[in-house]
Design goal:
alpha+beta; globular
């Protein structure tokens, strides 16, 4: 199996810093180390960025067969009570009240300026109970933000329970996942609808399974209790799933045109600027809704675009995008795409330069290369299987 050439830049994650004893570790930490995973700090956790086979092999596994990711660094929050729906309608850009039990929805958590505190998927478990998944590094901010509004507007009547420390989360991704999970799980999960959830078990380990992911492929994300995550991971890898790290996850989400908080979205960037209009409700009032509705009506000054450039000289976050020598934007994420065999990137530019087909210049450490603005996503799987937006 191929590993990445030394000169190929794959990931938007940046250069790894030094591991410290301050970081959290998932229940699979020793498993990652035993598999030769290269551990790096990410979002306050020690996580594998890649395994010995390399990022090329991991990306190929997810695009053609099955790959498995330990995503236990992401948060798990339960919101419960008679005011839980009203609370979530206030703090999310998407509607909780219109979400049916058994389904899931992607949306943003915004501040009063419309900036994105985090993007998230939430699941309606019952009429008065939800599961919400914040990103790893944003979990403390989300917990603090939610508690503020619960205390101010929705207490008593809504409670929050953070089960991140007592559960694990696995992402099983790729076109072969329905067949594999159909053989391993004790219920017929392969027939689940996109953005739905079901309860099941693998080798006696209880699961809450969502038909969701962050790779652009079909797949499932599984909430597992405690150390059962090792049993489920082992069952999936024994069935042929290739262990994958953060590097492959970043390449896959970039190929699929999916945003990464801290790059395409942050607290100074709105969902409208990021092209996520379809996940912003105009039918309810919520934190930041006046700003977002105004941007929907009146437009914005800058826009997130995708672009390509030949070869493997991948753009890095922060590189300037130019028009006739003048900066008109900057790169937010970039990578060599092994699936498309070209370099790809996303970045913000003035709206007048955001049309697909526009030719811009990229400043690569003083050297200029031409890039072509293109529609997102860069990659879309050929068949209509579930995918995270």
């Amino acid at each position: 199996m191929l590993s990445a050439p030394a000169h190929t830049h794959f990931s938007s994650l940046g250069a790894p810093s030094i591991l410290t004893g301050d970081n959290l570790q998932t229940a699979l930490y020793d498993t990652h180390v035993s598999l030769g995973g290269r551990m790096v700090p990410f979002g306050g956790w020690d996580m594998p960025v890649q395994y010995p086979a390399g990022i090329l092999a991991e990306v190929k596994a997810v695009r053609t067969a099955t790959g498995i990711f330990d995503v236990s660094h992401m948060g798990r929050l339960y919101l419960s009570g008679p005011k839980a729906t009203e609370f979530l309608d206030w703090v999310l850009t998407g509607s909780a009240s219109t979400l049916r039990v058994g389904r899931a929805r992607y949306c943003m958590i915004c501040n009063e300026k419309g900036g994105v505190i985090d993007d998230t998927i939430f699941y309606r478990l019952s009429e008065e109970r939800y599961l919400l998944i914040p990103n790893a590094g944003n979990r403390p901010a989300v917990v603090s933000w939610f508690q503020r509004w619960i205390d101010e507007k929705f207490s008593p009547g809504c409670t929050m329970e953070d089960v991140t420390a007592t559960t694990g989360l696995l992402a099983f991704q790729g076109p072969g996942t329905p067949e594999t999970i159909g053989k391993l799980a004790d219920t017929p999960l392969s027939e689940m609808r996109p953005f739905s959830w079901a309860e099941s078990a693998i080798q006696g380990a209880p699961l809450l399974v969502g038909r969701t992911g962050y790779t652009g492929e079909d797949g499932f994300e599984m909430l597992v209790q405690g150390s059962d995550v090792i049993k489920v991971w082992t069952a999936l890898t024994d069935s042929g799933a290739i262990p994958c790290g953060l590097g492959a996850r970043d390449v896959l989400r970039l190929e699929a045109g999916l945003p990464l908080h801290g790059h395409e979205i942050d607290e100074e960037t709105t969902p409208i600027e990021a092209g996520l209009d379809r996940f912003v409700s105009v039918d309810k009032e919520y934190v930041g809704s006046d700003v977002l509705k105004g941007q929907k009506d009146n437009g914005v000054d800058r826009k997130l675009v995708g672009f390509t450039l030949p070869g493997r000289s991948a753009p890095r976050a922060g590189y300037d995008l130019l028009h006739e020598g003048e900066p008109i934007g900057a790169v937010t994420s970039g990578s060599y795409s092994p699936t498309l065999d070209t370099s790809i990137g996303m970045g913000y530019v003035s709206v007048r330069y955001a049309e697909p087909g526009a030719i811009l210049d990229l400043d690569i450490r003083g050297r200029t290369s031409q890039v072509t603005v293109t529609e997102l996503p860069f990659y879309q799987r050929p068949s209509k299987r579930p995918r995270r937006p």
